[in-house]
């Protein structure tokens, strides 16, 4: 095992206890006889490993739980509404709209065939009536209002 | 982190707040400290911790005991903290005015910490500052949480070799930053 191999292992597996005993033993043997690698190991330990290892843990502030609790309560209140909205997912929207359009076509045909279909002519009458109102001027405001109410 | 009993998870999954609180008590120190070391700021660590537990709460019913709860929580914590750190970096690069403000806050916090604690405390933040979020995560889970490469790999959803490489690069950077590289 040469210095480069030893330093690679010092940077990783040896230091982190990931080596098998046999390989770890070889690294230890090398360090014991190589002052440069011994120095490298010490620099690594003192400057990099120890400061991080000795970093204490902090207690999370109490208000975090309070915030989480209130978010949970909000979640719980809004969750059922979300569930019902799922019915309107795009996946469902396509067949729903398709069925609606189909039904409308069938109904229209049925009414036309039955001779009840005077809807078109009724709309035409209404349209021309409203168009005429514009030309009547401001004196007939009362009538205009009532027509608007009727149409609404 | 201590083990979380299966029945406690099951109870919490049904929406029992007391059970969820117990899980929080057992795991929040881990979540908060990993978040703190990855983000580098206590305010951000609070936001991340809150986000993590809301994610856990929302997804607990989907957790099928196929993986370990701990691994699941490790992963949510690390991902949330890394994403937080990255999105913050993006914001800071776009807005220089905000950058200055955030930096001053960070300096204040660091200064306060060095007054509160022994000098080793501040060194940690300074050291970790030299690393990218992924390297930070690996080093933190290894040094502060004492996890094995295998545990870190599953927490990060990656393989052992990637973990090893990140740890090596991180330590090389750290060695260089203290002038002993
Ligand atoms: Zn050597």
Structure description:
The complex is a heterodimer of chains A (152) and B (181). With 152 residues, chain A is mainly alpha-helical. Chain A folds into two domains: 3-54; 92-151, no CATH class. Helix content of chain A is 78%, strand content 0%. Chain A starts with a helix and ends with a helix. Chain B folds into two domains: 1-104, Rna Polymerase Sigma Factor, Chain: A, CATH 1.10.1740; 105-181, Orthogonal Bundle (Arc Repressor Mutant, subunit A), CATH 1.10.10. Helices cover 80% and strands 0% of the residues of chain B. Chain B has helices at residues 6-13, 17-39, 42-59, 69-94, 96-116, 119-128, 133-144, 149-156, 160-177. Mean pLDDT of chain B is 83; it is low at 96-121. The A-B interface holds A 8, 11-13, 16-18, 43-44, 47-49, 51-61, 63-65, 67-69, 71-72, 75-76 and B 15, 17, 20-21, 24, 28-29, 31-33, 36-37, 42, 45-46, 49-50, 53-54, 57-58, 117, 120-121, 123-124, 127-128, 139-140, 142-144, 148-149, 164, 167-168, 171-172, 174-175, 178, 180. Residues 3, 6, 30, 34, 36-37 of chain A line the site of zinc ion (ZN).
Keywords:
heterodimer; A: 152 residues; mainly alpha; 2 domains; 78% helix; 0% strand; disordered C terminus; B: 181 residues; Rna Polymerase Sigma Factor, Chain: A; Arc Repressor Mutant, subunit A; globular; binds zinc ion
Brief overview:
The complex is a heterodimer of chains A (about 150) and B (about 180). Chain A has about 150 residues and is mostly helical.
Question: Topology of this structure?
Answer:
The complex is a heterodimer of chains A (152) and B (181).
Chain A: H1 3-11, H2 21-33, H3 35-53, H4 63-85, H5 90-114, H6 119-136, H7 141-151
Helix pairs in contact in A: 1-3, 2-3
Chain B: H1 6-13, H2 17-39, H3 42-59, H4 69-94, H5 96-116, H6 119-128, H7 133-144, H8 149-156, H9 160-177
Helix pairs in contact in B: 1-2, 2-3, 2-4, 2-7, 3-4, 4-5, 4-8, 5-6, 7-9, 8-9
The structure holds zinc ion.
The site of zinc ion (ZN) has 6 residues of chain A, from helix 1 and helix 3.
